Amino acid sequence: MKGTFPIDKFSELRTPFYYYDTEVLRQTIATVRQEAARLGNVAVHYAVKANANAGVLSIIREHGLGADCVSGGEIRAALKAGFPASKIVFAGVGKADWEIELGLDADIFCFNVESVPELEVINELAARKGKMANVAFRINPDVGAHTHANITTGLAENKFGISMNDMDDVIDQALQMPHVRFVGLHFHIGSQIVDMGDFVALCNRINELQDRIEARHIRIEHINVGGGLGIDYDHPNRQPVPDFKSYFATYAKNLRLRPHQTLHFEPGRAIVGQCGSLISRVLYVKQGTNKKFAILDAGFTDLIRPALYQAYHKIENLSSDGAMETYDVVGPICESSDVFGKAIDLNSVRRGHFVALRSAGAYGEIMASSYNCRELPKGYLSDEMR
Ligand SMILES: *Cc1c(COP(=O)(O)O)cnc(C)c1O
After folding, report:
1. Mean pLDDT score, 327-349
2. Has residue 150 got a pLDDT over 70?
3. 267 CA distance to ligand 1 centroid (A)?
4. 268 lines ligand 1 (CB under 6 A)
5. For the stretch 43-67, what's the b/e string if a residue is b when 16 or more beta carbons lie within 10 angstroms of its beta carbon?
6. C-beta 269 within 6 A of ligand 1
7. Which domains are present in the chain?
8. Given its phi and psi angles, is residue 118 left (phi above 0), alpha (psi -120 to 50 degrees) or beta?
9. How far does the centroid of ligand 1 lie from the alpha carbon of residue 162, in Å?
10. Centroid of chain to Cα 87
11. Does the CB atom of residue 230 touch ligand 1 within 6 A?
12. CA 207, 209, 212, 215 torsion: positive or negative?
């Protein structure tokens, strides 16, 4: 089964480009809101780094989600898209002074702090401005996620967060500082996680930590569990909306939230992944020694996930229902890693056919580069093509 695309509209456009199906996006956000609401006091912040396309951001903002930012540039993009500062959180292991100042000036909701030196700088910069900064500590829970090694973040060996051994000391230091207000704990264990057991492990760890901190009579108002829910790259048509029901139910069942607490989530990939496709034209079909190559006008400069993470994206020939043939689907970049898939079965391909690389809405357009002096791909919403 293939996705549905307005390919008559595509013929006027320069390829490659990203196409965002806004119906899938809206349906996904509606599901998130519906399933999250069952948990009571919940705030969902979309992780802007997954996709900062202005049109995509604006739809997410319209539906009332907050924004999780990991740079000053992302804070600017979120503010520009109309996200209220009171719904912006700022994470990142290396926040520059100007980025912290930007967050302070905008009065964002919270800084998710990843080290003591960073805490000291936030306190100092806030003092200069006569402000109080809300801070949560990103704790490294030493919980492994069953995902690709490059996208685990919650192990002791990863650079992220503050280790559990240091946690009590760091909270004590924050409580002494006059320009920061300790408001909560933050976690994020990795990405493309489909085994709910990983989130159960995180919940168990948070429960332990909460007991330990409460025993010292320190109040925690906010628990932020980050993002990480995976999507079905194999079957984008069968499962266009990720399994948010199981995801939120896992937290409802396993996390012992206190009545006064707000639970925060930061999904990125799960919100935008399935609504986006990279649309490309076939430039050439080349017969190699013992295989056929379909050479696209899109390359890893447009979608780097296969080259960077050995990621799989389903590939569809949108222009033909001809007999299936097997191809290595490759881009034009002068690097051997510029391969989207090997031994891929496609409806017989000819020059000029449109090909879709599916499930490319997250970490696609936003990671594009201009290597080889290529132009960055544009992104179009399906709304614009009616
Ligand atoms: C990347 C990131 C997310 C989003 O991760 P997804 O796997 O896309 O859901 C959430 N929180 C933080 C702190 C992140 O760095």
Report:
1. 96
2. no
3. 6
4. yes
5. bbbbbbbbbbbebbbebbbebebbb
6. yes
7. 7-17+274-385 (2.40.37.10), 22-272 (3.20.20.10)
8. alpha
9. 17
10. 17
11. no
12. negative
State pLDDT tens for residues 8-24. 999 999 999 999 999 99
Q: Is 180 helix (H, G, I), strand (E, B) or coil?
A: strand
First to last CA, the chain: 23
- Could you tell me what percentage of the chain is helix, strand and coil, using 3-state DSSP and rounding each to the nearest 5? 35, 25, 40
Structure tokens at 75: 């804070």
Any alpha helices (H) in 129-195, and if so which ranges?
164-176
Q: Could you list the beta-strand ranges (E) of the chain.
A: 17-20, 42-47, 66-69, 88-90, 110-113, 133-140, 162-163, 180-186, 222-224, 262-265, 276-287, 292-296, 315-317, 324-330, 339-347, 354-357, 378-381
Q: Could you give the CA distance from residue 207 to residue 241 in angstroms, rounded to a whole number?
A: 29
pLDDT value of residue 48: 98
Q: What percent of the chain has pLDDT over 90?
A: 90
- Residue 37 corresponds to which tokens in the numbers above? 């609401």
| Cβ of 70 less than 6 Å from ligand 1 | yes
Distance CA 47, CA 272 (A): 10
